[in-house]
Amino acid sequence: MNFKIGTRGSKLALTQTNFVADKIKKIMPEASVEICIIKTSGDIMEDISLLKMGGKGVFVKEIEDALLSGAIDLAVHSMKDVPTEVPAGLEFAAILQREDVRDILASKDNRKIEQMPRGARIGTGSLRRASQLLAVLPDIAIIPLRGNLDTRLKKIETEKLAGVIVAAAGMKRMGFADRITQFLPVEIMLPAVGQGALGLEVRAGDSELKKILGKINHAPTYTEVTAERSFLRHLGGGCRLPIAALGKLEVDKLSLEGLVADPQGSSIIRDKVQGSVFEAEELGKRLADIIQEKGGKKLLDLMC
Length: 304
Fold this sequence. Notes:
Order of helices and strands: EHEHHHEEEEHEHEHEEHHEEEH
Radius of gyration: 19 Å
Helix content: 25-40%
Structural class: alpha/beta
Number of strands: 13
CATH topology of the largest domain: D-Maltodextrin-Binding Protein, domain 2
CATH class of the largest domain: Alpha Beta
Strand content: 15-25%
Low-confidence stretches: none
Number of domains: 3
Number of helices: 10
Oligomer: single chain
Largest sheet: 5 strands, mixed
């Protein structure tokens, strides 16, 4: 059987896709796997902020178009980049076991967050990261950041930054763990929806491929990410407010924590729900309703 796997062309995306290809070859040694690099809007327009480009979707649309057209058979996505609404005719056949969900600080002189001086320049292109950071360090300066992981790390020197905030998962997958100054606890920095998880998207009618990929699906991660994405969808998934969520499955109990914040971090509305492993979608909706009732709706109405 021959597979064409579509992916972005960054070093991280290719590392992740090769990881998936190896997983497939282990269960199907006879399979032939071809990796197809697809340029997305988010990759082409690196000098434009994600907010101006429309946020989620800019790293997946062209790949999904190739999947729908039959140019590729399978797409590998970082789940945090995937909009909550999947195009008709496509579905996720598997989500692999999650890497570390946390964000990290990579800093100049190995200085930790609590040691940052007033006015310290911290780089991030994420409203979610910026708002939560400003909530604990209101006197720092947030410097907008785009580009692949290598580029963002280099900007510590080229842009005279005190540090940058990026995902732990990418740092670990790229072999950059030695550059990590500090893992930021989720109590301070709740991660993005789907952070650390890789999703395998296929055409809905491709039952043979879905059956194969089902063998490498990690059910606990699939359940956690489903709850997080439900939370985001019920808040209005395209909103440009800082939104974060983290599902955690323990035995037969699923907990889901989420937040909505204003971009300056002056108002953060956060809560948590718990339920059965079979209630992932419902828990997302329940938490979204609670967050909105506690003041999230006012923020959403103002900003979305």
